[in-house]
Design brief:
Two copies of one chain form a homodimer.
Chain A (H helix, E strand, L loop, with lengths): L2 H8 L7 E6 L14 H4 L3 H9 L1 E6 L9 H8 L11 H8 L9 E10 L5 E3 L7 H11 L2 E3 L2 E7 L4 E7 L30 H18 L7 E8 L7 H5 L3 E5 L2 H9 L3 E2 L6 H11 L5 E6 L1 H7 L3 H19 L5 E5 L16 E7 L12 H5 L4 E4 L3 H8 L9
Helix pairs in contact in A: 5-9, 10-12, 11-12
């Protein structure tokens, strides 16, 4: 019996409400100048007050030392073992642009690239062409039909695109055309089993057509495809937790991840204020809310320590908008750390704060990495957070008699 | 996907360097007279200074309550699940005397023993005969050939020996002759499956020959064999971690364990000073070093609390020789605890200190069991230490996108 089976067997619907506030890239490491992390630097009186009434800890999204991508980081927070529930690269890219994959669709992540006269790849990203240029090129490639299969091409950002193959009897069991290096030709796409040979043929013919269409253009005169995959089919949070769950996120990727586990996606604006307003307006209709805050991660990725601190303080100022709704359980955490010093996701454990009337406060009075070390939850896998939230919402029955 | 597969998929070669300093038997328990452990008693200013810049915790080599032998203790530190990667007793004994087992060889651990006129074992260790005596007896038994199989006999220490069976088509699937008790005869060796029947026959004939040769000698007039096993075939650290790894150890057993996971073995002397000189001389050639310090464990095994304290202080004085090489990651830990009070290995968790520029210091300022309880790494399985070291050396890619 795996953990989801156990929780599914024990969970029951009730009127209590859970809010999961995900501060993307929450954790940090100390700024060498001050020896303080972003959280330790930020003034967060509202979070600290909630900490004093809650229970804290640190979470490993995947495992010690493993740096999570956004998808596994979030799946873990939703209670899904991220090593079991994996999403293919193409499907993830489609999620990231709010493209609804249909059940038989095969999606691939694509790059516009540059090849020389001998067909050797000289730049896998075609000089990171502007998004507007990519939009135009995608229109040239969109809608081609090969052997009854329609190929839908959507731009992502700069050189990135998604290719969706729509038709009957398609397979994702084919290799990449992207060689992942320069100085070589794009690879022929190969079937990984007999059933996939038609798919390999169609994708190779599509790539050849794309090359013909793009010939002579500079710098984007070719495409590379990788990560052919289907829409993931995961059990829904309604099934597992008996929750009526809603997601509030300003970025499509996180809405897509939430949709993958069966959440309703609430229309919201582009700011944290918009997101909290959306929460307030929909508070009665759902018993679980996932709210995603992107700003912290973006600042961390940019290596902007002070902007990350400011984002944390911004969230803190808005926190009363959330607490005054009086959800039964509030979880504040991140999907991974994004230390500004590292300018990217990292393996460092992520602070977790859980508040409910029934938690066992631990004496921690500050929401920081260092303070959370001594928290009552200890260091836990991120996939354990949802069972703890469910328990604190009194939504889990006893195991055994 | 198990943990080694995951790490193998994410690891990449880079110029950064990791040093794993293993202080054998590091952990202790308090001396009843002072209520302080060996580490708490020792003056260790250099370790304490490194702790202040690093992150600490405690590790369970195998699991809570389980006392590790040296082999599983080290395999865990190298990142190999010690319950999955096991080494047979005979093969381990061969490792312990620097004997290079060939792929088809079968090794057994042997004891010289004493039997009475009825063939009943009266002393399983032949009064722990001196090593010199054992050396002479081993020469009498060495080199016998039976049915095309050559039997190589090597002395270990006192009554201990290794028997290596070398020839075609041998099997390790046979039972022990050692009855593990006195007052009974040595057991006939039995084949555990049909393919092993020739091997059982050969080993029984060898034991009979040994008995003939030793007849009339006192007290060692017979041998007992156990733990027939092959050289272990484990994935190498080069494969898993993409590391160019080297081992520095004064005792053959630890060199053997390192060789088993594909490390190069560096020639060194008999002292800690020799080991650190070897590190310095080879520092440019490798990106991973395992340094093994034996003195602490030996003192613990002897029940000599003060000598263990002195060994810890000795290591501390030499630590600057290591830190001044400026490895990117330094891990200081042990393969298990060896409390002097217990005169042997124990189950107590082992202090772990990890330093890198990218670790998240935890406010711990002293390298001791008690201080490490509040460390930022928390309590972790020892097999998680390598992934953490790899992450801190920026040698692990992100999992998922």
């Amino acid at each position: 019996m795996d953990n989801l089976d156990l929780i599914k067997a024990l969970s029951r619907a009730s009127a209590s409400k859970i809010v999961l506030l995900v501060i993307d890239g929450l954790g940090g490491i100390p700024n060498p100048d001050t020896a303080k992390t972003e959280l330790e630097t930020a003034r967060t009186p509202n979070l600290d007050a909630l900490v004093a009434r809650g229970i804290c800890g640190l979470s490993d999204p995947i495992g010690p030392g493993i740096t999570p991508g956004s998808a596994p980081g979030h799946l873990a927070l939703f209670g899904y073992d991220p090593l079991t529930f994996q999403i293919g690269r193409g499907a993830l890219e489609a999620l990231g642009i709010d493209f609804d994959l249909e059940p038989g669709d095969i999606a691939a992540r694509g790059n516009f690239c540059t090849i020389d006269k001998d067909g050797l790849v000289t730049d896998r990203r075609a000089g990171r062409i502007p998004t507007e240029e990519s939009n135009r090129l995608c229109q040239l490639l969109d809608g081609i039909e090969i052997d009854g299969v329609r190929i839908i091409i959507r731009p992502v950002k700069e050189h990135r695109l998604v290719a969706i193959f729509r038709g009957d009897g398609l397979s994702a069991d084919i290799s990449d055309s992207d060689p992942q290096q320069t100085g070589v030709t794009a690879r022929d796409i190969a079937a990984l089993n007999q059933q996939a040979s038609r798919m390999a043929d169609i994708t190779n013919r599509f790539v050849a057509r794309a090359k013909e269409i793009l010939v002579g253009r500079q710098p984007a005169n070719m495409i590379l495809l990788r990560g052919f995959s289907k829409k993931p089919r995961f059990p829904s949070m309604t099934d597992i937790y008996k929750l009526k769950a809603a997601a509030i996120a300003t970025y499509p990727m996180y809405r897509g991840l939430a949709k993958t586990v069966g959440m309703d996606i609430l229309k919201t604006g582009q700011t944290m204020e918009d997101e909290l307003l959306t929460l307030k307006q929909n508070f009665k209709q759902y018993d679980f809310f996932f709210i995603h805050i992107k700003e912290t991660d973006a600042a961390g990725e940019d290596g902007d320590f002070n902007r990350k601190v400011a984002s944390l303080e911004h969230i803190d100022r808005l926190l009363p908008e959330l607490t005054r709704l009086e959800p039964d359980v509030i979880v504040v955490t991140g999907d991974h750390s994004t230390p500004a010093i590292l300018k990217g996701h990292s393996w460092h454990p992520v602070p977790v704060l859980l508040y409910s009337s029934y938690c066992r406060p631990d004496g921690v009075g500050r929401f920081s990495e260092k303070a959370c070390i001594t928290g009552g939850s200890g260091k836990i896998p991120a996939a354990d957070i949802m069972p703890l939230a469910m328990a604190n919402a009194l939504k889990l029955d006893k195991f055994g008699a």
